[in-house]
Design brief:
Elements (H helix, E strand, L loop, with lengths): L15 E10 L2 E11 L15 H8 L9 E9 L2 E2 L7 H7 L14 H11 L5 H15 L1
Antiparallel strand pairs: 1-2, 1-3, 3-4
Length: about 140
């Protein structure tokens, strides 16, 4: 039996769908019309030379590029069918569902305290005393 010329399309919707995504840093375009479906329970790798936009694309998935001045984004990123860039999306909740682990440290443009306290805060720790203790314990154990 001959093999089909193209793999059959899956009937499942992708967990993440990037649709015609373009991104600019000021006047410089970093991504141009990127579209990809990322299935659930599968490993997906982005491979390419330095500077081709891999990290920029990944940072779009959980809106880390929102923290960068001068960034403009067009297109859509759907997580379980919901546009992650929509005004109703709680960015902190989104980041608890779509986490990032980078090759190099990638702190938020905030104080050291705020970077360390970010994780406990989005997971429900609210009291200043509890946060202070967690931050101090974390920094001491890291030293």
């Amino acid at each position: 039996m001959p093999l089909p010329k193209q793999a059959p399309a899956t009937l499942e919707k992708p967990l993440l769908a990037v649709e015609e995504l373009s991104l600019w840093y000021g006047r410089s375009r970093a991504l141009e019309q990127v579209s990809i479906g990322i299935p659930e329970h599968r490993i997906t790798a982005f491979i390419g030379p330095s500077g081709c936009g891999k990290s920029t694309l990944l940072r779009c998935l959980n809106r880390l590029n929102d923290l960068v001045d001068g960034v403009r984004i067009e297109g859509r990123i759907l997580f379980r069918g919901i546009d992650v860039r929509g005004p109703e999306v709680d960015v902190n909740q989104l980041r608890t569902r779509i986490g990032m682990v980078f090759q190099k440290s990638n702190p938020f443009p905030k104080s050291i305290y705020e970077n360390v306290a970010y994780g406990p805060r989005i997971h429900g720790t609210r009291g200043k005393r509890d946060l202070d203790e967690t931050v101090e314990r974390s920094l001491r154990s890291a030293a």
